[in-house]
């Protein structure tokens, strides 16, 4: 994977094919040149706002062309992206803003009140609106500046992705440029990506499921078709309108789509593959038969570059075999490997440099619990069958 990162690909693609389409947003095209120039302008503005390499920049933004520009600007200038769920408020939002200690926070204007009321000290960071002010994101993106500094290396920190915090305080996963590149490569393997594919992107970029797609058009002749949010009633119309060949699912998305009224248009689309995580065994074949596409399940965590295993064989109930840069084993409570078919903890090992995270941000206790001499302990239960397929339990 050449430099093992992704950000150097943007100026190269913009120079080689400036009018080629990186993505569409609600149908409007975003060219490589547009994205490169806008992100250059925002990167220069970040320096003017005092952001240095390694400083955190939090984004509490819904998907938009400008949110893409600021994300690439953060990557260019060596800052650290902190994606923040736009639905967060109160103590949960206060914790992340205080823990990551950002220099700048970009937020949609209607979320300012949530930030003001969460209890965090707003005087310690610069709050920038998505639009409307002299110094708002849309103005910064239109600045027509050139960012001329050297780009970060593959092992520089790119993001702090905070876990959901369902079993305690959220933990900030340290994600390098290299790890996001691995995540994109994993997504391409799982989805069987080919040149000419169109990936339908409904996921928010603050989730790794959306973030892992961002480098893909820099690595393959693929276009992202982005929309503002998931809509069950409009889903297949949007998929048809953009000519999507790939759809991604998470959580209960497949169940939601299956509950929609059946239609003659259920198979009227160009989708070649549906891929993702969390498909219950009992609806697997029902979804494939109704909508006319194979499901390709995967398993992973942000800590191990998002995608750890993927199911290319179509074995119902399996999350498949490891990506080439990782290996997986099942250990019992004493840390010993178990026999095929026996449940235990899923433990992940890097087979290539930097494929597993180096630790949680400012949380040595959680790091020591997860990263042990015998591998990255996921805390998840699984088994491996006689053919080497992982079963997530």
What would you say this structure looks like, in words?
- By secondary structure, the chain is of the alpha/beta class.
- Helix content is 30%, strand content 23%.
- The chain has 13 helices and 20 strands.
- It is globular.
- The model has no long low-confidence stretch (mean pLDDT 96).
Q: What is the count of β-strands?
A: 20
Indicate the structural class: alpha/beta
Outline, from the CA principal axes?
Answer: globular
How large a portion of the residues is in β-strands, by DSSP E?
15-25%
Q: Which strand order spans the largest sheet, edge to edge or round the barrel?
A: 2-1-10-9-11-12-13-14-15
Low-confidence stretches: none
- The span between the termini is 33 Å
Mean pLDDT: 96
| Sheet with most strands | 9 strands, mixed
Number of helices: 13
Roughly how much helix do the residues carry, as a percent range?
25-40%
Radius of gyration: 21 Å
Can you tag this structure with a few keywords?
23% strand; alpha/beta; 393 residues; 20 strands; 30% helix; 13 helices
Could you write a compact summary of the structure shown?
This protein is an alpha/beta fold and 393 residues long. The protein has 13 helices and 20 strands. A nine-stranded mixed β-sheet has the order 2-1-10-9-11-12-13-14-15, sandwiched between helices. Strands 16, 17, 18, 19 and 20 form a five-stranded antiparallel β-sheet that branches.
């Amino acid at each position: 994977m050449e430099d093992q990162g992704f950000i150097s690909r943007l100026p190269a693609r913009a120079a080689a094919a400036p009018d080629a389409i990186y993505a569409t947003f609600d149908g409007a095209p975003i060219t490589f040149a547009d994205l490169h120039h806008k992100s250059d302008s925002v990167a220069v503005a970040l320096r003017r706002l005092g952001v240095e390499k390694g400083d955190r920049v939090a984004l509490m933004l819904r998907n938009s062309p400008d949110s893409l520009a600021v994300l690439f600007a953060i990557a260019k200038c060596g800052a650290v992206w902190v994606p923040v769920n736009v639905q967060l408020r109160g103590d949960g939002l206060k914790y992340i803003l205080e823990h990551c200690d950002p220099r700048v926070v970009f937020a949609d204007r209607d979320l300012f009140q949530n930030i003001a009321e969460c209890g965090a000290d707003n005087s310690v960071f610069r709050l920038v609106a998505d639009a409307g002010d002299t110094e708002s994101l849309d103005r910064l993106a239109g600045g027509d500046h050139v960012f001329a500094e050297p780009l970060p290396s593959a092992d520089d920190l790119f993001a702090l992705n905070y876990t959901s915090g369902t079993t305690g305080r959220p933990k900030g996963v340290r994600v390098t440029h290299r790890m996001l590149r691995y995540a994109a490569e994993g997504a391409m393997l799982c989805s069987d990506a080919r040149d000419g594919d169109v990936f339908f992107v409904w996921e928010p970029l603050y989730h790794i499921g959306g973030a892992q797609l961002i480098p893909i058009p820099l690595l393959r002749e693929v276009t992202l078709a982005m929309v503002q949010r998931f809509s069950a009633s409009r889903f297949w119309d949007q998929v048809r309108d953009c000519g999507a060949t790939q759809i991604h699912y998470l959580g209960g998305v497949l169940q939601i789509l299956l509950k929609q009224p059946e239609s003659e248009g259920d198979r009227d689309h160009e989708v070649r593959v549906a891929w993702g995580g969390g498909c219950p065994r009992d609806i697997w074949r029902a979804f494939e038969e109704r909508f006319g596409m194979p499901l390709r399940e995967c398993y992973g965590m942000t800590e191990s570059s998002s995608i750890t295993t993927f199911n290319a064989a179509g074995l119902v109930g399996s999350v498949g075999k490891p990506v080439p840069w990782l290996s997986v084993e099942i250990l019992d409570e004493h840390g010993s490997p178990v026999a095929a078919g026996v449940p235990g903890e899923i433990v992940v090992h890097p087979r290539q440099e930097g494929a597993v995270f180096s630790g949680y941000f400012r949380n040595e206790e959680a790091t020591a619990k997860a990263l042990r001499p015998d591998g990255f302990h996921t805390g998840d239960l699984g088994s491996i069958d006689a053919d080497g397929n992982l079963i997530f339990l």
